Each structure stands twice: as C-alpha cells, then as structure tokens.
C-alpha cells in the first residue's frame, strides 16, 4: 500500500513536471540490464533482470531554478538466487523497487543549505562522490551501514572549496516505515570533488528495528593522476557496543573513446564476522547506450574463502 | 534460458533507441564550483535544457570537419543563465573533450553576445593543468567568438597557435584540447540555444 502510494505520488510529480516543462526541462531514459551471476560457495548460476524509468527534471519559476526532481524505479526479477534481500519472498521473486527518488530544493542565500526529501542516497564515505547505481561495483555501504539509499531528508550544499551533506532517514530501506527509535543519521564533509585530490570525513549513527545500534567515524581520500585513480577509506565505530573497523583501497585505470575502466578493490571489515575481499571489475562503455561489466570477487568470511562473479549488460534508451 | 530471453529483450528494445543517454540522472550536478569561481557575485541561475542531436552534430562537422561531436556528446545538455539579482551576468556551458588524459571537462563562461568571458576546468587529469588556467591563457580566450576560434584552428593545422602554446608554458597538446573545447562549445551553444539567447537580447538584457 505504502509503496503503491509512493509510486503514484512519484508518477504524479513526474507527470506534473513533464507537463509544466513540456519535456524541455526533463531528461528520461528507459534503463534495462541483465546480470548473470555465479556463486562458488553454492556452485550455482543465477541471474537478475532490471527494467525501469530514470527521470530528471529541472524545476523553475519566474525567478529561475528552484529545484530538481529525480525518479528512478525499476522492475526487478530474480531467478534462482541463492540468497535475496528480505523484500523478496524467494530467489525467484520479482518486485518494483525504488533507487533514487528525490525532490531537491536549491534556492537560498549563500550560507543557507539546500534540502532534499525522498529516497535519498546515504552521504557516507567514497560512495558520496561516485555514481554506483545500477553498476556492479560500489563502495560497500550495505555491509558497513546496512543502507545505500533510505527514506528521509537531507541538507546539503556545495562551495568552491568544500561540500557537505547531512541526512536523517527512517532506516527502513526500500519500504517506507517510520518506527519510534529507528533511524539513521549520516553526514559527510569533503574538499571539492573537482580537485585532483579529495579528502572527506564521515559520521554515521543508526538504530534498527531489532534495536541494534551502529556508529561509524570514517575518513576517505581520492587522488587522480593522469589515467590513474587511487581511493582509500578507513573507519572505526561500534556495533551494539563492540568495537568495529573497516578499510577499503582501490586502484582504477581508465581509457576513453571507447571507454574502458579497470578497477581493483580490497575491502576488510569485522562487523559480525571477519570479512575481506579482493575484487576486480572491468567496465566497457562503447557509446552512450551500452555498458558491459564483469566483476570477479574473491572473498573470505572468517577464513572461509569463495569466489563470486557477475557479468552485466546494460542498455539505456 | 532466462538470461538469453532477457538479453534478447534488451536487444529488441535497443532497436527503437532514439537519443543517447549515458549516465544515470541521479549523478547530474549543477556546476556550482564553476559558477562561484567565475561569477562570485551571482545570486541565482536558470537552466535551459536542450537536445543536442544529429542535426547539430552534422552542422558542427560541416564547420569543423576535423573535430566533430562524438556520439557520446549528443543528448540533452544544459545552458545556465547566471543572474545577479534581476540581471543576467553571463552564460555557463559545460562540455567534455577527449584527450590522452581522459575526458577534460571545462565550464565555459560566455556573455550574451556569445563571446568567451572565462573558463574553469572541472575535471582534467593532466598533472600540468595549472599551465592552462593561468591569466595569459585566459587572456587569449577572452572575448573570442566562434568565428575567430574556427579561423585560428584553420590557420594552424587544427592545432593550438604558438601564442597560446607559449601562454600555456609549452603544453601544446593540452592547449589544443582547450582550444577545441572552446570552439565546439561556442558552435554548439549557438546551434542549440540561439533562440533562447536571442530572447534575452530582445528583452533588452
């Protein structure tokens, strides 16, 4: 019921912005992808199919721009998945899912923050500066904070020398639910993302439905030199009072026209179990429509090793 | 079997593809850094989103056959009108240009007459990019029009002229990339947003 209401509101706002802007101030794309996956731990092949709408509109009045609206909703079909997010009933289930749905209000004096409401990305660590929606690599927000995007609000602003975003969300993930004592608070301050080196500081605090509390304090750094990119993120915190830590390192090499990107990521954390992985991703984007990626991950949980791989073919119309 | 079905459905749907759209739209950002750097007095801005299509690509190709638009440069793009209170103080158009260091993203600031006022490098992985953002280079581009830049490229074998290379402390390749970016930006701005800019001029602004 709630998801249907949100989808209806999203489509109504989409239609409203579509109509008032006569499509001129809007961008839209049909976005589809298929992922073929293999998990060595269960010796099983499985796949996932996505198709959905990616919509963006600039909102203006007689005084100029006052905001933007983004609506991303995807039909997701799992096939033979050995494990699945709890919103799916089985490894062969399908669901309509929201990625990013947000309304940004971007009018205010120089020192005033801008505001954002909706299913917003959690502002934490390296993920804050990289778009990993719909791609087969990311900066591990799910294992660290349990969320990649969540229903709530944030305040943000970007200046010449630095940027910041602070969010308060419901810690409900896909399904909007607000329960007393359940929340996620996250924030990041970082130097300008347009420099050759970027440094950021993040904090995170949450309490979930199972009354488990989690907090993180993390720093991140990025260095760009010619075709190379070096990334690092280190965090310490507490989970239900027990000390936790994490570390992430990544090296990227990029070619352009046609675009190839090669990434190697090493990630460790001790939240719940001792976990580490080494992950190699190759991504090819020959033009503005197609995107092919291969992710091979060698992981160990409490010293038990296994390999998993994902091949994704994505097309945007 | 299901994977093959999904692949087939993507291939069939791709046959009806119209306009290229590359990145997910949640990653689109207004060029606040460039706006604040070039127009620190600005109070607000207005976006005008237009489709840069194959017709514009062919027009650019007819003017600059050696530097036509890549298919990845097509799609919807934004021209920003920058205001101080009620008056526009300039335009900003951000374009990416291919180089040996990857894509170089430059925010070009123009006046209403579509002359270059200034520029800000948003992304450039060349370690010597400081050589292309100094006052001498900016002075070379200031008040240049599309016609002037097209003539410069024509008379210098489509490369940066000596005066620009010297201003960039000998960085010939980077100077050529910036010159190409400036020229294409001016041509595309005129082809894509001519009516909107003429409306501003007609309004007496």
Assign a percent range to the helix content of chain B.
Answer: 40-55%
Most extensive interface = A-B, 56 and 52 residues
> What percent of residues of chain B are in strands?
15-25%
Helix content of chain A: under 10%
If you had to describe this structure to a student in words, what would you say it looks like?
- The complex is a heterodimer of chains A (317) and B (205).
- Chain A has 317 residues and is mainly beta.
- Helices cover 8% and strands 61% of the residues of chain A.
- Chain A is built from 2 helices and 16 strands.
- In chain B, strands 1-2-3-4-5 form a 5-stranded antiparallel β-sheet, with helices on both faces.
- In chain B, β4 and β5 form a beta hairpin.
- The longest helix of chain B is centred in the C-terminal third of the chain and has 31 residues.
- Chains A and B meet through β1, β2, β3, β4 and β16 of A and α1, α2, β1, β2 and β5 of B.
Can you lay out the helices and strands and say which pair or pack?
The complex is a heterodimer of chains A (317) and B (205).
Chain A: H1 2-21, E1 26-39, E2 44-61, E3 64-79, E4 94-105, E5 114-121, H2 141-145, E6 149-158, E7 162-169, E8 183-191, E9 197-207, E10 213-225, E11 228-239, E12 242-255, E13 259-269, E14 275-285, E15 290-301, E16 304-316
Antiparallel strand pairs in A: 1-2, 1-16, 2-3, 3-4, 4-5, 5-6, 6-7, 7-8, 8-9, 9-10, 10-11, 11-12, 12-13, 13-14, 14-15, 15-16
Chain B: H1 2-14, H2 32-38, E1 44-52, H3 54-63, E2 75-84, E3 87-99, E4 102-110, E5 116-123, H4 135-141, H5 146-155, H6 162-167, H7 172-202
Antiparallel strand pairs in B: 1-2, 2-3, 3-4, 4-5
Helix pairs in contact in B: 5-7
């Amino acid at each position: 019921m709630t998801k249907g209401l949100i989808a209806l509101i999203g489509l109504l706002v989409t239609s409203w912005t579509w109509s008032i802007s006569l499509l001129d101030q809007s961008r839209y794309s049909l976005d589809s992808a298929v992922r073929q996956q293999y998990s060595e731990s269960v010796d099983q092949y499985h796949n996932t199919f996505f198709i959905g709408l990616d919509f963006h509109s600039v909102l203006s009045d007689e005084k100029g721009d006052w905001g933007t609206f983004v609506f991303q909703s995807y039909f997701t079909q799992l096939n033979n998945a050995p494990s699945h997010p709890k919103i799916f009933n089985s490894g062969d289930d399908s669901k309509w899912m929201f990625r990013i749905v947000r309304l940004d209000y971007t009018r205010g004096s120089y020192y005033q923050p801008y505001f954002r409401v909706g299913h917003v990305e959690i502002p934490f660590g390296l993920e804050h500066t990289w778009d990993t929606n719909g791609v087969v690599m990311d900066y591990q927000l799910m294992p660290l904070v349990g969320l990649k995007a969540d229903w709530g609000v944030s305040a943000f602003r970007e200046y010449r020398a630095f940027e910041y975003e602070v969010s308060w969300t419901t810690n409900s993930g896909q399904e909007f639910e607000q329960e007393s004592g359940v929340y996620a608070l996250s924030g990041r301050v970082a130097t300008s993302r347009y420099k050759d080196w970027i440094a950021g500081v993040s904090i995170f605090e949450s309490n979930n439905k199972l009354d488990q509390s989690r907090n993180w304090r993390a720093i991140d750094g990025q260095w760009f030199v010619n075709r190379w990119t070096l990334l690092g993120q280190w965090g310490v915190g507490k989970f239900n009072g027990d000390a936790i830590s994490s570390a992430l390192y990544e090296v990227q090499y990029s070619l352009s026209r046609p675009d190839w990107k090669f990434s190697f990521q090493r990630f460790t954390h001790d939240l719940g179990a001792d976990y580490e992985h080494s992950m190699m991703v190759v991504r090819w984007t020959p033009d503005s429509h197609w995107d092919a990626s291969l992710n091979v991950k060698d992981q160990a949980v409490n010293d038990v090793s296994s390999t998993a791989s994902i091949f994704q073919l994505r097309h945007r119309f | 079997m299901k994977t093959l079905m999904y692949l087939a459905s993507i291939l069939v749907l791709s046959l009806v593809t119209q306009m290229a759209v590359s990145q997910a739209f949640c990653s689109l950002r207004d060029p606040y850094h460039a706006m604040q750097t070039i127009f620190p007095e600005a109070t607000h801005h207005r976006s005008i989103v237009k489709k840069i299509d194959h017709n514009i690509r062919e027009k650019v190709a007819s003017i600059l056959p050696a530097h036509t638009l890549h298919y990845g440069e097509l799609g919807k793009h934004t021209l920003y009108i920058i205001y101080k209170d009620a008056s526009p103080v300039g335009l900003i158009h951000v374009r990416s240009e291919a180089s040996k260091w990857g894509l170089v993203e430059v925010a070009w600031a123009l006046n209403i007459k579509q002359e270059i006022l200034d520029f800000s490098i948003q992304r450039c992985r060349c370690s010597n990019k400081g050589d292309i953002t100094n006052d001498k280079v900016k002075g070379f581009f200031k008040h240049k029009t599309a016609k002037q830049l097209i003539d410069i490229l024509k008379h210098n074998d489509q490369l940066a002229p000596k005066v620009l290379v010297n201003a960039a402390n000998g960085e010939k390749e980077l100077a050529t990339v910036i010159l190409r970016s400036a020229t294409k930006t001016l041509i595309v701005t005129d082809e894509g947003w001519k009516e909107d800019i003429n409306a501003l001029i007609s309004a007496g602004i």
